[in-house]
Write a structure and sequence with these properties.
Blueprint lengths: L2 H25 L5 H21 L6 H26 L7 H18 L3 H24 L7 H24 L14 H36 L11 H18 L3 E8 L2 H8 L1 H18 L5 E6 L2 E7 L3 H16 L2 E4 L2 E4 L2 E7 L7 H17 L5 E3 L7 E2 L18
Parallel strand pairs: 6-7
Antiparallel strand pairs: 1-3, 1-6, 2-3, 4-5, 7-8
């Protein structure tokens, strides 16, 4: 392949991916990692275009510049990838200063010994690539595991190319003057173009995977409280029941309902009602851990699924939640509103295959707590449940009301 034709193909591919990622970053600014990856592609394109304008002349100064650009590219890729697979950007200013310091050391060293500076830059690049590959191979976002591991494989191939260049003593960028390239240099150049294209494709794949993941989360998240919605709760409950059956582990469920929520809306308005629901959502999220699934089932009704909890342990969680909600104070102008919640607790029984049975018992216990005076926790038993007053004493209700009157 003619040298200029080969280089032109590389420039066009780099420009295309830089433009594509730039448009994606501009259209969806929530995916911050795309902007870093677009910046890396843009810098690579501008640098390659500058070399083409300079007729590809390789000098010690250009080698040092290539080394610094390579470190910057790997750092940009590292930060961009971390936004995707770990949902966080630069961890600290120390990390940024370390990166800038490495570039400064290489530039300073290059004024005395260009070969040593280039070798040091390649070592730093390899170390950063190893860190990126390890991060991509074990992403904290499970939905991005496939595109992240594909990117890790491509980066491993890139590291292999850098090592090969080091042993073969090839320049960071192959010369592009017609007729000056040997067969080995042409082959390395073709491999470099291919790796850059595949890496850019993997960037786009990460963006698509993250977009799908976020859309999946949004369709299963209640927009007002940030908790899981009913659809997501049902899906997770089915998996929790299956896991509990296979491992013969306990599984408990809390059903919560705000007391006299309609009166709150009628008295203070729906704006305060929304604030009340959000406040309860914050309490539920702060009082539960990763083992527990919390969701809004609809209206002012919430559910908490507790894998590994017996009904007695779940009752302790319920009592803690009831107390936290009772301590809430919502201020509206000169008025202050308080909230209480009634909670029904049930657990999965031996032989049950559907979570709806457990749900119905928790719902019945919830209505018993409502009939018994509200602001209390009631356990769903085999026969008659025993409600708990806020002070911890137990008693039995001797009367009942139809659900329609609640």
């Amino acid at each position: 392949m003619h040298a200029h034709t080969m280089y032109l193909v590389g420039l066009i591919s780099q420009a295309t991916f830089a433009l594509t990622l730039g448009i994606l970053a501009w259209s969806d600014r929530r995916t911050r990692g795309t902007a870093w990856l677009a910046m890396a592609c843009a810098i690579q394109f501008l640098y390659s275009a500058a070399r083409a304008t300079n007729q590809g002349q390789v000098t010690p100064r250009s080698e040092i510049f290539s080394a610094c650009v390579l470190i910057y590219l790997v750092y940009s890729v590292f930060v961009g990838m971390r936004w995707f697979v770990q949902q966080r950007g630069p961890s600290s200013r120390r990390e940024l200063f370390s990166f800038l310091g490495a570039m400064a050391v290489i530039a300073l060293l290059g004024t005395f010994n260009a070969t040593l500076a280039v070798s040091l830059s390649r070592c730093i690049t390899l170390a950063m690539c190893v860190r990126v590959v390890w991060m991509l191979w074990k992403p904290s976002v499970a939905a991005l595991r496939i595109p992240a591991r594909i990117s890790a494989v491509i980066l491993c191939l890139t590291m292999g190319l850098i090592i090969f260049n080091s042993f073969a003593r090839l320049p960071m960028e192959a010369p592009i003057v017609t007729g000056s390239e040997g067969g080995l240099t042409v082959t390395v150049r073709l491999i470099t173009i291919g790796l850059l294209a595949m890496l850019s494709f993997s960037f786009v794949g990460l963006f698509v995977g993250e977009t799908n993941r976020r859309l999946h989360e949004e369709t299963r998240t209640d927009s007002l409280t940030g908790l899981r919605n009913r659809r997501a709760m049902e899906e997770m409950a089915v998996r929790a029941v299956s896991h509990a059956q296979q491992n013969r582990a306990p599984l408990a469920l809390l059903m919560l309902d705000l007391d006299r929520f309609k009166d709150l809306n009628d008295t203070f308005g729906h704006a305060l009602g929304d604030r009340a629901l959000r406040s309860v959502g914050v309490v539920l999220m702060s009082e539960t851990d990763s083992r527990e699934v919390t969701g809004r089932m609809g209206g002012e009704e919430f559910a908490v699924l507790l894998p590994g909890f017996t009904v007695e342990q779940a009752a302790e969680v319920a009592e803690r939640l009831r107390g936290r909600v009772a301590d809430l104070r919502l201020h509206e102008t000169e008025f202050s509103a308080t909230l209480t919640v009634s909670i029904g607790v049930s657990e999965m029984r031996s032989g049950e295959k559907a979570w709806t049975d457990m749900l119905c018992r928790a719902d019945d216990a919830l209505y018993r707590a409502k009939r018994a005076g509200r602001n209390r926790v009631e356990l769903a038993g085999n026969d008659e449940s025993t409600p708990r007053e806020p002070n911890g004493r137990t008693w039995r209700s001797k009367w009942s009301l139809p659900k329609a009157s609640l």
